Amino acid sequence: MNNTNLHELAAKAKDYLKFETEEVITWCGGCGNYSIQNALKRALTLEGFDRKDVLFCFDVGCNGNGADKIEGYTIHGLHGRVISLAAGAVIANPKMKVIAAAGDGATFSEGVNHLVHAVRNDYPMLFIFHNNENYGLTTGQASAMSRKGWKMNGTPDGVVVESINAMDFVLTLKPSFVARTYSGDPDQMTEVMQAALKHKGFAFVEVLQACPTYNKATPDHWYGERVKKIEELAGYDKHDIWQARKIVQDMDKEIYVGVIYEDPNKQNFMEMQKSREGISTTLVEEVKHYDISECC
Ligand code: SF4
User: Fold this and answer.
1) What separation in Å is there between the alpha carbon of 210 and the centre of ligand 1?
2) What is the mean pLDDT of residues 156-163?
3) Could you tell me the pTM of the whole model?
4) 111 lines ligand 1 (CB under 6 A)
5) Is residue 97 scored above 90 in pLDDT?
């Protein structure tokens, strides 16, 4: 490795030190969670966020065990409920950057109803969808993303139903921002998260995540051989939802990553609230304090 590379690596590492903690890492070796969390820390730093500006909301799952490995305000919520938790927080205080993260089990089984209405309502938050195509924390059971025929713990004869195409599902809900990235490309992940952090509505970011312990079918190199950048697709228009829906159908040969769809004109949830027009304070700031010490 030459000096330039070493300097670049040192600069990248320094980028996100303010979001680092000293907690012991418990993820398996080779897990995509390492690079995903580092990309998020770098993106936040490059976009000028400080620890006090951000609320991290984690669901239950392997990624949720990252809750103590990132410095900032953090909530580790109930399984499948992280989107509603984060939505409540951002409505109460839109001045905070609210970031929620959940795996494919939580997002597309326990919590799929929350995802649907968060996209429709365009809550102003970033949602990171960790898609490792299985329930990793509970030792590799099939999720709604596990593909038909895969032999998993709990389905030793193979998954009998078709998996859900996450991106296509979200695109049918008239979203304002949909992006995809994968855990083997930290720089591209950082760029996508930077774009998502700038978005004013509900930013849905799917991360195709390596889970070397329980997902042997689509490991890091499998994605590495198939992932292509959307910028390299001639004539692609990220404002055209039909092009977006067409491009996300293929999950086996050419898998496009980047900002797949964006609607800059969609009003987010806060902008749609007539009762909040002209009000600069947040609901949190408007809470009245009562002295109840004499009441009981
Ligand atoms: Fe990561 Fe999979 Fe291990 Fe969970 S089980 S920590 S997702 S490699």
Assistant:
1) 8
2) 97
3) 0.93
4) no
5) yes
